[in-house]
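Please supply some protein, with C-alpha cells.
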Amino acid sequence: MHSRLAIVFPLLLLAADAQAQSTTIGDVGQWCRGYPGGGYDRLCEGYLGEALKLLADRNPDMNGGHRACVPGGTPLRAVVDHVQTWLAVSPARGDMGVVPGAGLALQPHYPCRDSGDMHDARRPSARG
C-alpha cells in the first residue's frame, strides 16, 4: 500500500501543478463573472486572493514584475470589477497567466508605495 502511495501521490501533485500553471486570467475572469453569486465564487476568491498576495511581493520573481498592492479590507468585488474591465478592453490578454494578468489589470488602481511602506497585503474582503 505504501509503495503505491509513493508512486501515485507525486503524480497527483504534478497533475495539480500542471493545472495551476495552465490557468489563465481569462479563466479566472470567467469564474468571477457575476461575483458574488455567479456559481464559481470559491474559485474566483481563491485564485484572486492568492494572486494578490504574490502581486504585493517586492520580489519580481514572485509577481513577474507586475506589482499591485490592494489594501486589506478592499471588497473583492472592486478587484473583480477592475479585472473584468481590463479583460473586456484587452480580450487577447486573457491567455496570460493569472498573476501577470491580474497585475496589469490592477496596477493602475492599486500602485505599491516605493517608500518602504508595505501595503496591507491581507486578503481583500469577500463581502461587498
In short: Residues 2-22 form the longest helix (21 residues). Confidence is low (pLDDT under 50) at residues 11-18, 115-122. The chain is about 55% helix and 0% strand.
